[in-house]
Every structure is written in C-alpha cells, then in structure tokens.
C-alpha cells in the first residue's frame, strides 16, 4: 500500500492499516528520536504521541511529501522542543547530522539553510574516513544521489555502495563524540 | 546551551568560558544532569531494543476506537498480539560488515572486573571475585570488596595479609583503621590485619597502583600512616593520595589530592602539598616534584581512563593491564604519538582502539590476546 492510500485509510479510521503502519515504522522512529534524546523511554513516548496525533488528527494533516517523511519531521520537531525544555539548542546541527547518518530513511524535510550547516559539519566529519568511503558519503548525503546512481558513477555494485555507507555510518556514528571534539578543537 | 558543548565536555575540550556555561547549565536542574548522563552513556552503548507490542498497547489505550468495532476485529487483534508476543523485535541497528576472512576461535578479550587473591597470614590463598562471599573473624568480603573489622584491643603479634590484583582486575579494600584503598590491575598490597595502638600504621605497596584515603591520625591515637613502595616511604597524617609504581614503570609516582604527606627516599625527605606529584626514578633515585592534573591521575579509581597528552605506548600499557592483553609496537614512531581522551573502563577494548584508529594516526591488529600497533 502506498503512502497516499495509507493516510487515506487512516483518515477512514481503518485500524488495521494504522496498526500495520505503526508496526512497520515504530522502531525506526524510536531509533531516530533516540538520536536526539539518548533515552529510550523519552523516545518511545514522543513517537507514541506522534502516532496518537496521526490517528486523531489525520483529517487535518497536510502531507506534502510522504507520510513517513511527515512523521520523521514531526518526531524531530518534538525532540527539539523537548530539548528546548532542557535548555539545549543545536544551532550547529550536530544532532541533525548525526541522526541523518544513523537513519536509513531519506530525510527530505530540512530547509536549505539547515542543510547548508549540516553539510558543512558532515564534510568536516568525513575527512577522517578512507577516500572512497568519503566519496560515497558525500555523493549520498550531500549530492543526494540514489544508491544506483552512485554505483553507476563509480562503476561498483549497489551492494558495495550500501556496504560502504553502512560502514561509514557506523564509523562516524560510533566515534562522533571524539571526531567532533577533535574538529572543534582544531 | 548548544548541544556540542556536551560533546566537548565528554572529550575534555571545553574552553574556560564554555566550561562555565556548561557548569551553569548542568547545575541548574537534575533533568539537565540526567540528560548529560544519557548522552554520555549512549556513546558507550549503542544497542537497544524497541518493544513494538508495548508501544502499541499504550497507543491503543489512548486513541478513540472507531464506532461499531466488530467481534472479528477483536479476534484479529488478539491473533496479531499473540503473534507479536512470539517475535522479538529488534531495532535494525547496523552491524559492521565483516570483510575479513573467517578466523579461528581465539581467546577473547574481556573487560576488567573486581577480582583479587587474598593471601592470609598462614599462606592460605583465597580467590575473591563477584558472587563469592568470604568471611572470617577479622574480615568480610562480598567478592568485590574487602573490609577489615576494627579491633581496638589487638595485642601480640600483628598478622600480615596480602592482596594481589591480577591483570584485568581491580579491588576496593577497607583496612582495620578505616583507611580506604582502591587497587588497580596488576597490583599487590601487604598490610596488617590490625594496627597496634601506638606504632605507626604501616602498609607496603609491593607494586602497582593504589589510591589511599587515609583515616586521620587523630582517630588513631595520633599514629602516622606509612606506605612503603620499592624503597620509597610516604608518611601520612590523614589524607588522599595516589601511588603508581607498576613493575614495568621507570618511576614511582606519588600524587597528593588532599592533606599533606612526606616522601622519604633514602636520606631525602620531601613534603608534598595538594596538586603536586613526586616522581622518583627507580634506578637513579633522582626525585622530581611538579604540579600535575590530579583528576587525570586518579580517574582510574572512578572507572575511567584519562589520557592527557599521553604517548600511545603509555596508553597501550594502561590498556594492557585492564584488558589483560599483550601489546607489540611494530612501528616505534607510532608509539610516541600523543593522544587526549577520556574513556569509560567498562567498555570493550575494541571500541577504544577503533576510536584511536579513527584519528588515522595508528592501526591496530588483534591476534588472540595480542594487539599489534602499526
């Protein structure tokens, strides 16, 4: 079922579709929230609120792109608001960059200004990666190439691209604190 | 406050102004502190499981059910829930892709734990480790720490016990006078089971590293507390300090945190005041006293590795003791490169190595329990 029919069915209060959609997306959204909040319980609460909101306000939602993208952006907004209540800001977009890398989903809702900052951070962080991995990360996250396009451009298999990206994400994700600290002290 | 200050805090790279900003933020509320701790912990543990069923139940109890739900729906829901119950749901965290050839099963590298061997006055050896309690008239141990009972009317011959911490171990000890001692990996301490009423309280750090919080003289008939270490003697009136003198070390390093101690070596006597560290060369017996970063020196007792401008070869020595691995430096120049960083000791060695590798300054190869630095 495509994204449009899903939201249509949810508007019709079809609980089967809603539940199936919940089961398909809940873990990744919790994972995404957790990259801002670093707390599983808070993250689960926020994602649950988002799903309740979706069910109850389905008719009022104006979804421009995909439903999933819409939920991701809702989760992000709520996370940032939550952090605001802890007096935490992230103008440097460290959290956005980190969550972008750790998420498997294409986050398409950032403003162009936000993207500029995120890309700037990303460029600094990938410097430490092997050159091929670096190239693939840049093509994927900065130039927004699809897997297939990267594979064609570089003359490698799609699997290689995926593998390299996974390893890059892992490397960056795990060592984020250290890398950023190193960069910021330079 | 910007989020990145939290990261800088975790890596000890805050500027003075940022440090003040951070302190103001963290001391403002308990929730702030707790968020900081969550971020800190998350960099040590990335695995997490999301319980879809629980999430759904919470949502389902909150959303309005559509009108006229059929019985069919209830049965269907029950069926799905039963199905969900039987399936473990795990967040698809990315697992590293292993490109190396399959390897033969090797001795695994484990994180250090609380463990020690206690040698009693009659030579009996007792292995102390988590889950193994051991109690006698003079002492109690739950396997993770050892506490001696105060016995004010101790007479006659004073019995000596020895506590030996292996590589990959650490231990906490409370002596009969109430002095607290934290013992690092690869360390041996000899001490009396009881202290006589008038004579100095004397213990010997045979080798290794120990942090002492000495019970004050006024509570012990004015008796001094003495720590002998490989020819050096530290004379204490009640204070906190760290002695580091591993067998492979060139120096005996004594760092004073609080109070006052006198360092005696041969005929020389030097007083230390808090924040100072004395370094005695084990062979030439030359002594140097200089200010040092105390929290850096004693971080091990709080479960941290703190490396400040430390050459890689020194870092590897510290790691080898805690993880009980051997280290071979293949490229001598790499061993001299200095690094900064604070790590929790309660994590896998490979995490720490991969962070160091990510600086592109050095590469590690692991073979069984040997780490090669390339």
UniProtKB/TrEMBL annotation, chain A:
<dbReference type="InterPro" id="IPR013324">
    <property type="entry name" value="RNA_pol_sigma_r3/r4-like"/>
</dbReference>
<dbReference type="InterPro" id="IPR036388">
    <property type="entry name" value="WH-like_DNA-bd_sf"/>
</dbReference>
<dbReference type="InterPro" id="IPR014327">
    <property type="entry name" value="RNA_pol_sigma70_bacteroid"/>
</dbReference>
<feature type="domain" description="RNA polymerase sigma-70 region 2">
    <location>
        <begin position="22"/>
        <end position="85"/>
    </location>
</feature>
<keyword id="KW-0731">Sigma factor</keyword>
<keyword id="KW-0804">Transcription</keyword>
<protein>
    <submittedName>
        <fullName>RNA polymerase sigma-70 factor</fullName>
    </submittedName>
</protein>
<dbReference type="InterPro" id="IPR007627">
    <property type="entry name" value="RNA_pol_sigma70_r2"/>
</dbReference>
<comment type="similarity">
    <text>Belongs to the sigma-70 factor family. ECF subfamily.</text>
</comment>
<dbReference type="Pfam" id="PF08281">
    <property type="entry name" value="Sigma70_r4_2"/>
</dbReference>
<dbReference type="InterPro" id="IPR013249">
    <property type="entry name" value="RNA_pol_sigma70_r4_t2"/>
</dbReference>
<feature type="domain" description="RNA polymerase sigma factor 70 region 4 type 2">
    <location>
        <begin position="120"/>
        <end position="172"/>
    </location>
</feature>
<keyword id="KW-0805">Transcription regulation</keyword>
<dbReference type="InterPro" id="IPR014284">
    <property type="entry name" value="RNA_pol_sigma-70_dom"/>
</dbReference>
<dbReference type="Pfam" id="PF04542">
    <property type="entry name" value="Sigma70_r2"/>
</dbReference>
<dbReference type="InterPro" id="IPR039425">
    <property type="entry name" value="RNA_pol_sigma-70-like"/>
</dbReference>
<dbReference type="InterPro" id="IPR013325">
    <property type="entry name" value="RNA_pol_sigma_r2"/>
</dbReference>
UniProtKB/TrEMBL annotation, chain B:
<protein>
    <submittedName>
        <fullName>FecR family protein</fullName>
    </submittedName>
</protein>
<dbReference type="Pfam" id="PF04773">
    <property type="entry name" value="FecR"/>
</dbReference>
<dbReference type="InterPro" id="IPR032508">
    <property type="entry name" value="FecR_C"/>
</dbReference>
<dbReference type="InterPro" id="IPR012373">
    <property type="entry name" value="Ferrdict_sens_TM"/>
</dbReference>
<feature type="domain" description="Protein FecR C-terminal">
    <location>
        <begin position="305"/>
        <end position="373"/>
    </location>
</feature>
<dbReference type="InterPro" id="IPR006860">
    <property type="entry name" value="FecR"/>
</dbReference>
<feature type="domain" description="FecR protein">
    <location>
        <begin position="163"/>
        <end position="261"/>
    </location>
</feature>
<dbReference type="Pfam" id="PF16344">
    <property type="entry name" value="FecR_C"/>
</dbReference>
């Amino acid at each position: 079922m495509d994204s449009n029919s899903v939201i249509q069915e949810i508007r019709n209060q079809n609980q089967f579709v809603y539940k199936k959609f919940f089961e398909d997306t809940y873990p990744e959204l919790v994972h995404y929230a957790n990259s801002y909040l670093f707390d599983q319980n808070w993250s689960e609460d926020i994602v649950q609120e988002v799903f309740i909101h979706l069910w109850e306000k389905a008719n009022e939602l104006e979804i421009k792109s995909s439903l999933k993208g819409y939920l991701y952006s809702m989760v992000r907004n709520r996370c940032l608001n939550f952090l605001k209540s802890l007096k935490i800001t992230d103008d440097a977009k460290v959290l956005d960059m980190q969550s972008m890398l750790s998420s498997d989903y294409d986050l398409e809702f950032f403003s162009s200004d936000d993207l500029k900052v995120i890309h700037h951070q990303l460029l600094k962080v990938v410097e430490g990666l092997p050159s091929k991995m670096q190239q693939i990360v840049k093509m994927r996250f900065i130039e927004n190439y699809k897997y297939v396009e990267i594979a064609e451009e570089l003359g490698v298999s799609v699997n290689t691209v995926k593998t390299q990206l996974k390893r890059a994400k892992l490397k960056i994700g795990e060592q984020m604190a250290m890398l950023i600290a190193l960069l910021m002290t330079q | 406050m910007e989020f990145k200050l939290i990261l800088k805090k975790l890596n000890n790279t805050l500027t003075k102004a940022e440090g003040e900003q951070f302190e103001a933020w963290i001391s403002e509320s308990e929730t702030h502190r707790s968020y900081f701790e969550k971020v800190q912990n998350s960099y040590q543990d990335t695995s997490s499981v999301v319980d879809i069923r629980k999430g759904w139940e919470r949502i389902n109890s909150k959303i309005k059910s559509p009108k006229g739900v059929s019985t069919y729906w209830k049965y269907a829901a029950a069926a799905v829930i039963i199905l969900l119950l039987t399936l473990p749901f795990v967040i698809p965290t990315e697992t590293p892709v292993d490109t190396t050839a399959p390897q033969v099963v090797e001795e695994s590298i484990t994180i250090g734990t609380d463990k020690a061997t206690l040698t009693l006055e009659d030579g009996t050896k007792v292995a102390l480790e988590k889950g193994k309690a051991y109690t006698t008239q003079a002492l109690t141990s739950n396997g993770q720490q050892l506490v001696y009972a105060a016995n004010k009317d101790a007479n006659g011959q004073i019995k000596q016990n020895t506590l030996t911490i292996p590589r990959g171990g650490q231990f906490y000890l409370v002596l009969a006078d109430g002095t607290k001692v934290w013992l690092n990996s690869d360390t041996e301490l000899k001490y009396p089971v009881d202290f006589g009423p008038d004579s100095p309280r004397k213990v010997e750090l045979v080798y290794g590293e120990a942090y002492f919080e000495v019970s004050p003289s006024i509570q012990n008939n004015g008796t001094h507390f003495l720590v002998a270490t490989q020819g050096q003697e530290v004379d204490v009136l009640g204070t906190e300090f760290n002695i580091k003198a591993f067998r492979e070390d060139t120096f005996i390093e004594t760092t004073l945190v609080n109070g006052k101690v006198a360092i005696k070596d041969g005929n020389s006597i030097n007083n230390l005041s808090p924040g100072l560290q004395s370094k005695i060369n084990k062979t030439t017996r030359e002594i140097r006293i200089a200010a040092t970063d105390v929290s850096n020196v004693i971080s091990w007792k709080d479960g941290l590795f703190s490396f400040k401008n430390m050459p890689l070869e020194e870092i590897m020595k510290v790691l080898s003791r805690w993880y009980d691995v051997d280290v071979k430096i293949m490229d001598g120049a790499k061993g001299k490169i200095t690094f900064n960083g604070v790590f929790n000791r309660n994590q896998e060695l490979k995490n720490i190595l991969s962070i160091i590798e990510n600086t592109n300054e050095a590469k590690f190869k692991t073979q069984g329990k040997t780490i090669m630095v390339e």
